[in-house]
Amino acid sequence: MSVFAVDPAILASAHHAADWPLASLFLHDEARYVWCLLVPRRAGAVEIADLAPDDQAQLMAEIVRLSHGLRGLDGVDKLNVGALGNMVPQLHVHVLGRRKGDPAWPGPVWGHSPAVRLDTAERDRRLALVRSF
């Protein structure tokens, strides 16, 4: 039996915010978007289909919870939700708030340009914000 651990690539690019019933919530270190990741704490999960049916339902509930929180923020016009896994195979779901005219609008943010890192004050503000969801 394998032991759950968050992929080092996620740990290098995101800040742990909270542990929800199924997933660990991370804030992506990107100043231009309010961008979060949900990482289900299930060893070996690569696809949503790898989760047990109850975990699939819980993941969807956590995606919706995070979506409601992000959607309520000023300036969020659209949500992007995706479980790509092309670069980091560990199952993780991106949920991010987009605004018309953001640097990648209307295209996807994935691969658009190098990340603009959060400064310490903004990181702490956003972590407190997403922890309140």
Describe this structure in words.
The structure is a single chain. 28% of the residues lie in helices and 23% in strands. The longest helix is centred in the middle third of the chain and has 19 residues, at 53-71. The protein has helices at 8-13, 53-71, 120-131, and strands at 14-19, 23-28, 34-40, 78-82, 93-98. It has a five-stranded antiparallel β-sheet.
Q: Bin the helical content.
A: 25-40%
Mean pLDDT: 96
Quantity of strands, as a count: 5
Strand order of the largest sheet: 1-2-3-5-4
Distance between the termini: 33 Å
**Rg over C-alpha atoms, rounded to the nearest angstrom:** 14 Å
Q: Major beta sheet, specifics? A: 5 strands, antiparallel
The proportion of residues in beta strands is: 15-25%
Report the structural category: alpha+beta
Number of helices in the DSSP assignment: 3
Give the H and E element order. Answer: HEEEHEEH
**What general outline do the C-alpha atoms trace?**
globular
**Spans where pLDDT lies below 50 across 5 or more residues:** none
Relevant terms:
133 residues; alpha+beta; 28% helix; 23% strand; globular
At a glance:
This protein has 133 residues and is α+β, with helices and mostly antiparallel strands.
Question: Could you give the topology of this structure?
Answer:
Blueprint lengths: L7 H6 E6 L3 E6 L5 E7 L12 H19 L6 E5 L10 E6 L21 H12 L2
Antiparallel strand pairs: 1-2, 2-3, 3-5, 4-5
